[in-house]
Amino acid sequence: MTWTPFTQLDRTGLTPQEAGTWTDGQGLLLSIHYFDLVPDLPAALDEPERLREGLAHSAAHAGGGLIEAEVAEVGGMPGLRQLIKVPLERGHGQAFVGSWTVPRDRSSAVVKVQAAEGRRTGLREALIVDEVGPMHFFTPHPYAPEVTGGLPHHAADDERWDARFPDHPLTRVRATLRRITPSIAFADEYRERPPFAAPATTA
Fold it and tell me: How confident is residue 46, by pLDDT bands cut at 50, 70 and 90?
């Protein structure tokens, strides 16, 4: 990474793995990314409903699932916070990715936190489906009820269960992203770039 827009980021408890990547030694990875390209987002940040709908479809088409997405301020700039889940290549289990994307007109800065399930998979889901019942476990996606494919939207991904599963990768990703968010800061050069504009809509 020759240049980074990030000037501050809390890496407490993490050790460097390679350029722009840190690990806690227990499977969690923190990484920073800079893309000198027009951001690949389906809508502008000031259109949160259209943005979330598009993100839900994109995640499903890629074989994963969007858990949460919200537009909020990070480092004094407008950004997009996402949590997604993706299937592991080994054929069972999931990985969870939390991120902040701060788009500008022709570039974007991304902070990513990720962790994957180990040998034991599906325990959180099994316990929650027993508790809430099958009829209330799987639900239409709140951002795009018509979305199909990918990983299904279900109750076990809700934040209210995190305290019961403190070592689950989703809990750890969500907690780490929340912890580092107040520390994120950007270079003035990046802050002064023109804002990201909405992609053109098609008829």
Answer: very high
Q: What is the 3-state secondary structure (H, E, C) of 26-65?
A: CCCEEEEEEECCCCCCCCCCCCHHHHHHHHHHHHHHCCCE
- Alpha carbon distance 46, 128 (integer Å): 35
Residue 173, pLDDT above cutoff 90 = yes
Is residue 5 within 8 Å of residue 186, measured between CB atoms? yes
pLDDT confidence of 201, banded at 50, 70, 90?
Answer: low
Q: Which CATH code is given to the segment(s) 6-189?
A: 3.40.1000
Overall pTM > 0.85 = yes
Which residues pair with residue 23 across a beta bridge?
15, 29
Please answer whether residues 116 and 93 qualify as being in contact, where contact means their C-beta atoms are separated by less than 8 angstroms.
yes
Backbone angles phi, psi at 14, to 5 degrees: -115, 150
Question: Quick check: helix, strand or coil at residue 67?
Answer: strand
User: Which uninterrupted H or E stretch holds 15?
Assistant: strand 15-18
Q: What are the residue ranges spanned by the domains of the chain? A: 6-189
* pLDDT interval class at 198 (50, 70, 90): confident
CA 195 to chain centre: 21
H-helix or E-strand spanning residue 180 = helix 169-180
